[in-house]
């Protein structure tokens, strides 16, 4: 949080997402997200976000 706050103003309620901790993906205990999976996040009094994952496709110019 300290490093991030050197570049931007953090407000109460801000979420800081840092990615996957070291070693988690290599353990094999947790499956990767796949096309069709849905991730839903809700914060009481703020709202809900729902994201459905789709297959990745390269940008038009890279095909």
TrEMBL record:
SUPFAM superfamilies, alphabetized: FAH (SSF56529)
GO molecular function: 5-oxopent-3-ene-1,2,5-tricarboxylate decarboxylase activity; isomerase activity; metal ion binding
Keyword Metal-binding tagged: yes
Pfam families: FAA_hydrolase
InterPro entries per the UniProt record, alphabetical: Fumarylacetoacetase-like_C, Fumarylacetoacetase_C_sf
Keywords on record: Isomerase, Lyase, Metal-binding
Annotated ranges, domain Fumarylacetoacetase-like C-terminal: 3-51
Keyword Isomerase: yes
EC numbers, comma separated: 4.1.1.68, 5.3.3.-
Identification of the protein by name: 2-hydroxyhepta-2,4-diene-1,7-dioate isomerase / 5-carboxymethyl-2-oxo-hex-3- ene-1,7-dioate decarboxylase
């Amino acid at each position: 949080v300290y490093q991030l706050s050197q570049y931007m103003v953090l407000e109460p309620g801000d979420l800081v997402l840092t990615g996957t901790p070291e070693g988690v993906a290599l353990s094999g205990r947790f499956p990767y997200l796949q096309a069709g999976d849905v991730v839903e996040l809700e914060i009481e009094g703020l709202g809900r976000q729902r994201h459905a994952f789709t297959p990745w496709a390269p940008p038009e110019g890279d095909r």
